[in-house]
Design brief:
Strand content: under 5%
Order of helices and strands: HEEHHHHHHHH
Distance between the termini: 52 Å
Number of helices: 9
Largest sheet: 2 strands, antiparallel
Radius of gyration: 17 Å
Number of strands: 2
Structural class: mainly alpha
Helix content: 55-70%
Length: 196
């Protein structure tokens, strides 16, 4: 019989695998978008945190849990609408993860802790929340930044890089600077950081 961690991880990944959207991986295979994102988050956690506990590992894996169910377009345009959508997504993902954890045998306190991390309460003060944020920023920079930057006006993109950078820990900064980037992406990052 699987232990509580393996059972919860499998349940989280089963929900990720229901994402109807797919992404093409570097090897040419396709995978549900959310499952690919979750696996990328877990891989980065191994590099940003020396000894993550099970609760943090599950929270990082579940950060975007079932995000496709509530579309961004269902909220008002603009920054306030985006932040409200993102907050609601975090609360919903946290509550679902907490339920899965308790069903597998975790304590209510452990489940609530995971929900708190996923909702990013305490960013900048809580080392686990910071680890999750670092992973999210690194996944964005490594996998989505180049395409995203082609769709966004240049000055706005510079501000996005600056905001992303401010949310990251010094360790995540070091890791980010080792990422392979196109000349255009590297130039954008250099400009953003030079203006900081």
């Amino acid at each position: 019989m699987p232990n509580a961690f393996d059972q919860t991880l499998a349940a989280i990944d089963a929900l990720h695998a229901e994402d109807p959207r797919t992404t093409t991986l570097a090897d040419g295979t396709s995978m549900p978008q959310e499952l690919a994102y979750a696996q990328r988050m877990s891989r980065w956690l191994e590099r940003v945190h020396d000894a993550p506990d099970e609760v943090l590992m599950l929270a990082v894996r579940a950060q975007h849990l079932q995000r496709w169910l509530v579309q961004r377009e269902e909220y008002p345009e603009g920054r306030v609408g985006y932040l409200t959508w993102r907050r609601d997504q975090g609360l919903r993902a946290g509550a679902t993860t907490a339920r899965l954890m308790q069903a597998a045998g975790y304590t209510p306190e452990q489940a609530e802790r995971a929900a708190t991390i996923i909702s990013k309460k305490g960013l900048g003060r809580d080392t686990d929340v910071q680890a999750l944020e670092d992973c999210a920023c690194l996944v964005f920079l490594e996998n989505y930044f180049a395409d995203f930057s082609r769709k966004i006006e240049h000055d706005h993109m510079v501000r996005i890089v600056q905001k992303t950078w401010r949310k990251m820990s010094p360790r995540a900064h070091e890791l980010a600077l080792t990422l392979p980037m196109s000349d255009a992406s590297a130039a954008l990052v250099k400009e953003a950081l030079g203006a900081e």
